[in-house]
Task: inverse folding
């Protein structure tokens, strides 16, 4: 069976599911007047922004503004999550008991408490002490959260590399740091792309929790739009779709990366 | 050149048993000498090699290489390792790097050679081990014999004073053993100081200066390869030789 035929079957299945859903909506007594026409302006619109900015031009609507913030906070958290996770993953394997135990404590602490609670603690407690903006606090909370999970993934990745690799590198006179950087981590990262992708897809979705600290992300903007218009179905479907765009793109990008890196196998 | 004095090394197995890998082991290896170490599995041969560049730490005793006690706390072990090439049973090439990159990496990172200089040296060595045409491929695309020759080139690129071979041909298909042994023989004839753990008695007879037979962490018998072929003294030696020859 070729690729196009399979895609057609998939699309067909989706269409059938949509048709059934539509049937239940329309024929089973749920009367709902759809207002999809109000959605496009929440994405893009042409016109003035406010009295201060009266120039009519193409502007992002509220959902698009939220989308951009979610993208920004997700990408920053992924970036810092990788850095924290790499350090933690290496520290978990340290010969130094103090380093090892601190890293372990961090992982257990973060993994075993709810992200929502962590966001509140970092925003209200740490954030007000250090005068962090909501964005900084949100990014910090998500990065620290992701760092714990990424740390475990990195540790497993490093441990999966045959110990002969480290021995070969060290026997050539490389320091531990050089061997990690040039020999172990590149191989480990290649191996952990699939679980990392899963983790970062989760992170993008979890980022919707930062709406509780009044960060105007996609979720927050969606809630506001619903409060204003009462078009809950249309808005939340659109919000879900926009999250899907981000996660699916990431998913595709990692598959491409995996393919590219497979050339040395 | 390598002075090994009363070295003891004990491993602790996961179930807390103690296994003595080296017991009061002493020997001296001269510059340019080719020493072949034979012995049954678990006799401490590999452990001895791995203690010579501190991939394992010894419990007591001294190992002095070119006047430097390598277990001295002030010694930078990385500097010692630059001078001791090691070839492993399972090659341990870096699978994410091409053949050429495998040989240039440590040259650039450790020896601080420029990319061009490192490549030139690498190509020279690939020519020497007879696989110059494979420089752009990844290790997984090479046969075992070719991989092991790349591993030898990688070690030689550091311009080491000593080369150690840890059962370098044991994981190879029989028809590939020869090509690797040929490279090792060339090295031996060029005057490289070599410590070779192997069961290839043909290699021992052709190029070795001395053969050491080890068992249970100690030297049972040593002498020329000829000695081992003609009149081994110990019963343990005779038994072992009858099994491998």
Result:
């Amino acid at each position: 069976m070729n690729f196009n035929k399979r895609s057609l079957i998939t699309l067909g299945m989706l269409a059938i599911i949509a048709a059934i859903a539509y049937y239940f909506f329309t024929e089973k007594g749920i009367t709902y007047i759809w207002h999809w026409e109000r959605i496009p302006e929440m994405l893009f619109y042409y016109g003035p922004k406010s009295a201060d900015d009266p120039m009519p031009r193409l502007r992002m609507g509220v959902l698009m503004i939220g989308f951009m913030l979610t993208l920004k906070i997700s990408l920053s958290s992924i970036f810092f999550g990788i850095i924290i996770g790499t350090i933690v993953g290496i520290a978990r394997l340290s010969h130094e008991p103090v380093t090892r135990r601190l890293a372990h404590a961090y992982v257990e602490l973060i993994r075993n408490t709810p992200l929502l609670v962590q966001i509140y603690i970092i925003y209200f407690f740490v954030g007000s002490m250090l005068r962090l903006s909501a964005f900084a606090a949100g990014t910090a909370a998500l990065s620290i959260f992701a760092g714990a999970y990424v740390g475990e993934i990195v540790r497993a990745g490093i441990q999966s590399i045959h110990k002969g690799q480290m021995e070969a590198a060290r026997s050539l006179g490389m320091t531990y740091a050089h061997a990690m950087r040039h020999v172990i981590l590149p191989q480990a990262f290649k191996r952990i792309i699939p679980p990392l992708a899963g983790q970062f897809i989760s992170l993008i979705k979890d980022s919707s929790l930062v709406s509780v600290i009044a960060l105007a992300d996609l979720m927050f903007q969606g809630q506001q739009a619903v409060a204003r218009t009462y078009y809950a179905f249309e808005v939340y479907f659109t919000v879900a779709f926009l999250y899907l765009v981000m996660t699916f793109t990431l998913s595709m990008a990692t598959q491409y990366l995996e393919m590219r890196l497979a050339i040395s196998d | 050149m390598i002075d090994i004095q009363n070295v003891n090394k004990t491993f602790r197995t996961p179930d807390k048993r103690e296994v003595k890998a080296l017991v009061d082991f002493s020997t001296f290896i001269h510059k340019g000498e080719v020493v072949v170490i034979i012995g049954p599995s678990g006799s401490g041969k590999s452990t001895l090699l791995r203690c010579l560049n501190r991939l394992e730490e010894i419990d007591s005793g001294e190992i002095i290489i070119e006047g430097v006690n390598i277990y001295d706390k002030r010694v930078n072990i990385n500097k010692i390792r630059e001078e001791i090439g090691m070839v492993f049973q399972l090659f341990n090439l870096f699978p994410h790097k091409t053949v050429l990159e495998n040989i240039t990496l440590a040259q650039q990172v450790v020896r601080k050679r420029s990319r061009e200089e490192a490549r030139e040296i690498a190509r020279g060595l690939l020519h020497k081990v007879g696989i110059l045409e494979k420089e752009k491929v990844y290790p997984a695309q090479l046969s075992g014999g070719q991989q092991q020759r790349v591993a030898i080139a990688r070690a030689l690129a550091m311009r080491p004073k000593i080369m150690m071979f840890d059962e370098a041909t044991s994981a190879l298909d029989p028809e590939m053993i020869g090509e690797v042994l040929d490279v090792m023989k060339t090295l031996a004839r060029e005057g490289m100081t070599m410590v070779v753990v192997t069961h290839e008695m043909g290699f021992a007879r052709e190029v070795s200066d001395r053969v050491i037979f080890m068992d249970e962490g100690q030297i049972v018998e040593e002498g020329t390869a000829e000695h081992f072929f003609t009149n081994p003294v110990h019963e343990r030696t005779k038994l072992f030789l009858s099994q491998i020859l």
In short: The longest helix of chain A spans residues 62-92. The first strand of chain A starts at residue 44 and ends at 47.
